[in-house]
Amino acid sequence: MRLSELVETSARIAATSRRTEKSALLADLLRRLAGGEVAIAVSYLCGEPPQGKIGIAYRSLRDATGDAAAVPSLELLDVDRRLGEISAVSSRSNKLDLLRSLTAAATPTERRFLAGLLTGELRQGALEGLMAGAVARATGIPPDRIRRASMMAGTIVPVACAALERGSEGLEQFQVKLFQPVQPMLANTAEGPAEAIAELGQAALEFKLDGARIQVHKSGDAVAVYSRGQNEVTAAVPEVVEIVRAMPARELILDGEVLSLLPDGRPRPFQVTMRRFGRKLDVERVRAELPLTPFWFDLLYADGGALLDEPQAKRFAELERVSPAGLVIPHAVTSDSARAQEFLRDALERGHEGIMAKSVAASYEAGSRGQNWLKIKQARTLDLVILAAEWGSGRRKGWLSNLHLGARDPATGGFVMLGKTFKGLTDEMLAWQTEEFQKIAVAGDGYTVHLEPKIVAEIAFNEIQASPVYPGGMALRFARVKRYRGDKSAAAADTIETVRSYFAAFSTSTAKT
Ligand code: AMP
């Protein structure tokens, strides 16, 4: 394939914002590649030349210009060979000579592409994600398998080559390997137990413990513990090593949460558990003060076999077989939302963060945050001021419905908007607010009615997330009105500082190891 063909596809991919179109363009290009070209094309498209850095500064690259070629003639294999030569020679002047001869053969568009490639400007993390989908499309292999294999390989390039050349059989070499941490599966948020059950049907419920995620690999006496970010933390958690070493299975990869418990079995706060992961610790001393207990919730590998493709129910059953019962996460399987509600209450009463609801049928989706794991945390409330309301539509036509919610900002005397909600409002509340709000309206555009900031409502929410949209940089997730606080004035509403401190404590962006 000519370099120009790849450059043109790359430009077309950049020009469309639609993912499916990007993926189709990529898949089409992949199908047209000859065997030896796949690794080169995939690397270029991801912005990483296979040679890595070729040892030429950006300025040299810009200076290496003479007349450009008028018509494209460079073949991908040729470009790769030339870049290999440039990277192999050591003298700067030789490198520049070779580079000049390459750029002389390139058209202006190709030159721009090569410059981007060689300076790292073209490096596109997003493309790596798209590439997995495109390889799946081009080969008919499920995208999850491609993603998993590229996670095991560390990059998509060898996976794309193997998949395009040998189909799904080619992927067998990229299996889970002991002592190579697997990216942890992540969870989305559900509003509450009923919503989670509605989404999943039958669900495996588990306590959600607020500690540190660990993945433990075992082969005989060798045990290694990895953090959520796949760093090795074995030395910090000797008790976990001892526990896993004593488990009868020879080979294991366990996924779980480790935390420090109080003598009565309730959890210590997250920050306290995290003291065990400090940099220069006297591990034995801190261990005596803050012993850690692991709770397993998944099993990815056992005695020679990977379990990632097995359904959760099977993985969990195997986990119960290999682990002492006291170290398996408290769990229940149900499709009854009242039972799920009770399970949540139980978790919260015992001082835990909430519950997880997991699809019993789902495989272990390493590195992905999907709908197969849903986290349900305790709802919290804030007393917020109603800044405006939007006229409703459909069943709520004629009523002021969607509320703009704001926290008090003592620094300015104003209010900082944190989101909108029309949830939780009964017909009585809708009728009341439609009448009252019109009395305190200060401006309106026929759609939104802006109000004097007077009325306070108690708002429940599940999470605060970073938001580029709202002025405080934060937005409430799953906000709903619990009740109007007729007894509170706006001057007594919660402040933006309170919201910030909640955000720091509970947001999903809280840095965890
Ligand atoms: P979050 O950090 O809020 O996105 O929640 C996901 C994290 O919850 C995981 O990475 C684990 O560290 C932790 N966690 C606690 N209990 C469980 C559980 N039963 N299943 C999965 N993750 C859990």
Characterization of the model:
By secondary structure, this protein is an alpha+beta fold. The protein has 3 domains: 3-173, DNA ligase i, domain 1; 186-372, DNA ligase/mRNA capping enzyme (D-amino Acid Aminotransferase, Chain A, domain 1, 2-Layer Sandwich), CATH 3.30.470; 380-510, OB fold (Dihydrolipoamide Acetyltransferase, E2P) (Beta Barrel). The protein contains 18 helices and 19 strands. It has helices at residues 3-15, 19-31, 38-45, 58-63, 76-88, 92-104, 108-119, 125-139, 143-153, 157-166, 193-200, 238-246, 270-274, 283-289, 312-322, 337-349, 427-439, 496-506; strands spanning 186-189, 203-208, 212-219, 222-227, 251-260, 292-302, 305-306, 331-334, 354-359, 369-377, 380-391, 400-409, 414-421, 441-444, 448-451, 456-461, 463-466, 474-477, 480-484. The radius of gyration is 28 Å and the shape is globular. The two termini are 44 Å apart. Bound molecules: adenosine monophosphate. Adenosine monophosphate is lined by residues 184, 187, 206, 208-209, 213, 228, 257, 297, 329, 356, 375, 508, 512.
